[in-house]
Amino acid sequence: MHKEVKTMKTVLTIAGSDCGGAGGIQADIKTITAHKLYATSVITSMTAQNTTGVYDIQESTPKFLGRQIDSVFQDIYPDAVKIGMVSSEELIEVIACKMEEYQVKNLILDTNIVSNSGRALIGSTAERIILRKLFPMASLILPSIPEAETISGISIDSIEDMGAAAGIISQKYGVRGIFFREGHRITEKGDMLFENGKITWIEGGYKESAKSMGKGCALSAAVACNLAKGDILAESVRKAKQYAKMAAENSLELGKGKNPINHFFERTETV
Predict the structure, then answer these.
(1) 147-195, pLDDT tens digit by residue?
(2) Which one, of 220, 216, 206, lies nearest residue 250 by Cα?
(3) What is the rounded distance in angstroms from the CA atom of residue 39 to the CA atom of residue 11?
């Protein structure tokens, strides 16, 4: 007797490896698994890090990165793709070329261009490749407020500023969807989703905690999961924000530094 063959939606994460498990590839795979989807991965770098910080990094070579992407797309074509932290311009160029080659659908870009303190995380050439090549292909980008200020060239201090910045970014770089994930710090309306000129407010904020880590990775990966399942963008973002919020509020007291969020909060039993 043959067993029934079951199909499952798949999500590809392209990001660095976090050996501490709180972010990067590891966090994305946990998020995808929590959404009951099949995770594939392409590793851009290996990091030596834990809850207290990042201590070393070793990048993939451009050739090997390309081979990883080919291996996934030629065998298990993903229903959605999430791109996380990539700092090398050579690697970003490979990713952009491969996404265009394979006509990727449901591309979610966790920008990682500028830190919350305003410090540049990547070089100017790498930034140009992201803006000019990846932005037009993305279904959604998730910039922080400092990143949105840098990309748009304007200060963001109000609801009106958020809308203006989104309009500038969309028009200049051909971005279809923009989610300002820190909008709740500016307005009680919550976080702003800009989709093809339409603004939707995603209500609710996180309980502020300097101790939790991994919310950004979980949020962007969760959006990819929901799009892969067939949800429209606004609903995908709304569900993803709620998931990241609950995972953060149920963060785990592990390690000596920040607390990793709990990706499986719905299944965790109190011991």
Answers:
(1) 899 899 999 988 899 999 999 999 999 999 999 877 667 777 778 999 9
(2) 206
(3) 5
